[in-house]
Amino acid sequence: MPLQYDDSVFINCPFDDDYLPIFEAIVFVTYDAGFIPRSALEIKDSSVNRLEKILNLISDCKHSIHDISRTELDPVNLLPRFNMPLELGIFLGCKEFGSRKHKSKSCLILDRTKYRFQKFISDIAGQDIEAHNNSPKKAIIIVRDWLRVQSKRTNMPGGSTIYKRYSQFKRDLPLICEELRLEVSELHYVDFSHVVTEWLKSNPLKP
Questions:
Q1: What are 41-54's pLDDT values in tens digits?
Q2: For the whole model, what pTM was predicted?
Q3: Which bin fits 78, alpha (ψ -120 to 50), beta or left (φ > 0)?
Q4: What is the H or E stretch that residue 86 is in?
Q5: How would you list the strands of the sheet with 36-38, edge to edge?
Q6: Which letter, b or e, does each residue of 176-200 get, where b requires 16 or more Cβ atoms within 10 Å of its Cβ?
Q7: Are 37 and 90 in contact (CB under 8 A)?
Q8: pLDDT tens digits for 146-163?
């Protein structure tokens, strides 16, 4: 699939196991809505530092999704992780100070609950924050509705329809992985994206 700027969506979110159900749901709905999800996980190149990867991805994507819900303290260091707010700040700076192309960027900011962010990042109080309540279905509906508004595409299926398709995909996933000699528990982002796109090709929306 060619990487088109207008259709590319940078996903800035936690990569831990607890968040995985939300992450996979976001990747699926982005593809099913006709867009291309992009993630730092797609790049495995030790010659490029992580921040450079993030900068390139943000530059290459018109849209981005930022989940700032992971604020728990690390059990070892007793410190929170600031990667997601940092990458959100880079995106907002790119939109504000970038070229004419970058000024048209759009983003969706997610958290667990609606006003929780005001306690730890109050400077974005003027932004519209959407709450997924740790629900993959809610995340799918939110992302679909946001992409619908941003793209103005009239042929996009509704969020509940996409969630039903996602549920079927999850039921089919073990068999698909078996056929591809992959393990569901070991799927890397690139493998997961490939499986999603292949499933979507085999299960197009009925007119």
A1: 998 877 778 899 99
A2: 0.92
A3: left
A4: helix 83-97
A5: 36-38, 8-12, 63-67, 106-111, 129-131
A6: bbeeeebeeeebebeebbebbeebb
A7: no
A8: 999 999 999 899 999 999
